[in-house]
């Protein structure tokens, strides 16, 4: 998962980074109000935030250059580059290429999905 995700992003932007969130045990996921079906609990998701690059730009780049199961731009505010975070998930087989945006702690199932960011 991490080689598939981090290596291309690091190579493209030339910037090392550490994901905000990776694998989560169920108890932690519950404590932070993650969804019950969070791919973080399966080791299939990471939250990406690169300090000097707009999270919107990262989400757009990933959507055009990488395979993914879900790509979610979470809590982005236009004009504030470091707002939001980018949730990226990948499964070994049959990635859905599902693009979502969510706002203010709503779960992905509550958000609109128009197939673009």
Describe the structure.
The protein is an alpha+beta fold and 117 residues long. It has one domain: Muramoyl-pentapeptide Carboxypeptidase, domain 2. It has helices at residues 2-13, 26-31, 55-65; strands at 45-48, 70-74, 85-89, 98-102. The longest helix is centred in the N-terminal third of the chain and has 12 residues, at 2-13. It is globular and about 35 Å long. The chain starts with a helix and ends in a 15-residue tail after the last strand. 24% of the residues are buried. The model is unreliable at 106-114 (pLDDT under 50). Residues 6-70 form the Peptidase M15A C-terminal domain. It comes from Nitrosomonas communis. InterPro entries: Peptidase_M15A_C, Zn_M74/Hedgehog-like. Pfam families: Peptidase_M15_3 (PF08291).
Topology, element by element:
Blueprint: H1 2-13, H2 26-31, E1 45-48, H3 55-65, E2 70-74, E3 85-89, E4 98-102
Parallel strand pairs: 2-4
Antiparallel strand pairs: 1-3, 2-3
Report the radius of gyration as a whole number of Å: 13 Å
Number of strands: 4
Query: Which percent range describes the beta-strand content?
Result: 15-25%
Q: State the name of the first-level CATH class.
A: Alpha Beta
Mean pLDDT: 85
**Helix and strand sequence:** HHEHEEE
Structure class: alpha+beta
Task: State the shape.
Answer: globular
Number of helices: 3
Count of separate structural domains: 1
Enumerate the spans where pLDDT stays under 50 for 5 or more consecutive residues.
Answer: 106-114
Q: How would you characterize the largest beta sheet?
A: 4 strands, mixed
Label the CATH architecture.
2-Layer Sandwich
The multimeric state of the shown protein is single chain
């Amino acid at each position: 998962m991490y080689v598939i995700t981090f290596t291309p992003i690091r190579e493209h932007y030339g910037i090392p980074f550490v994901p905000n969130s990776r694998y989560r045990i169920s108890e932690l996921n519950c404590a932070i109000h993650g969804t019950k079906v969070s791919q973080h609990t399966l080791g299939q998701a990471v939250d990406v935030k690169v300090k000097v690059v707009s999270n919107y730009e990262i989400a757009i780049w990933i959507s055009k250059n990488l395979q993914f199961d879900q790509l979610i731009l979470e809590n982005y505010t236009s004009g504030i580059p470091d707002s939001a975070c980018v949730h990226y998930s990948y499964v070994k087989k049959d990635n859905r290429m599902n693009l979502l945006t969510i706002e203010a702690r709503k779960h992905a199932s509550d958000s609109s999905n128009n197939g673009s960011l």
